[in-house]
Amino acid sequence: MTDSLPPCPQCSSEYTYEMGALLVCPECAHEWEAGAGDAAVESGEEGTVVKDSVGKVLADGDTVIVIKTLKVKGNPTPIKAGTKVRSIRLIDGVDGHDIDCKIDGFGAMQLKSSVVKKA
């Protein structure tokens, strides 16, 4: 019966269950109305949710911190872990690069959400 229920919209867990008129995720305790999230996803209203390395949802204008040292092509110095990046923009990038930003000393570039955490 769990095959007919949609996965959790927050953590993508497949172990959702019904509780009255609501669907519940046992892993993250998220509750939502059956069919409410499905209509928004099908019509494209909700968009893609971008999460950082620890699972927090990112939005345009957020400040993030790079969590590991990143080598940059064409630049002899890497972006060091702990570098703060202000005013990010979320994009549908290539190869998983879903953050567009400017980094002091490096200029405009794209980052993967898996190498940053929300500040």
Task: Give structural notes.
Strand 2 and strand 3 form a beta hairpin. The chain contains one helix and nine strands. The longest helix is centred in the N-terminal third of the chain and has 8 residues. 7% of the residues lie in helices and 27% in strands. About 8% of the residues have low confidence. It has a three-stranded antiparallel sheet with strand order 1-2-3, with no helix packed on it. It is mainly beta and 119 residues long. The protein is elongated, with a radius of gyration of 18 Å. It has two domains: 39 residues, N-terminal domain of TfIIb (Single Sheet); 56 residues, SH3 Domains (SH3 type barrels, Roll).
Summary keywords:
single chain; 119 residues; mainly beta; N-terminal domain of TfIIb; SH3 type barrels; 2 domains; three-stranded antiparallel beta sheet; 1 helix; 9 strands; elongated; YjdM; Alkylphosphonate utilization protein
Helix content: under 10%
CATH topology (fold) name of the largest domain: SH3 type barrels
Average pLDDT figure: 83
Q: Which CATH class of the largest domain applies here?
A: Mainly Beta
Q: Which blocks of ≥5 consecutive residues have pLDDT under 50?
A: 37-45
The main pleated sheet reads as: 3 strands, antiparallel
Strand content: 25-35%
Task: Count every beta strand, where a strand is a DSSP E run of 2 or more residues.
Answer: 9
Indicate the overall shape. Answer: elongated
What oligomerization state is this entry in? single chain
InterPro entries: YjdM, YjdM_C, YjdM_N
Family: Belongs to the YjdM family.
Protein name: Alkylphosphonate utilization protein
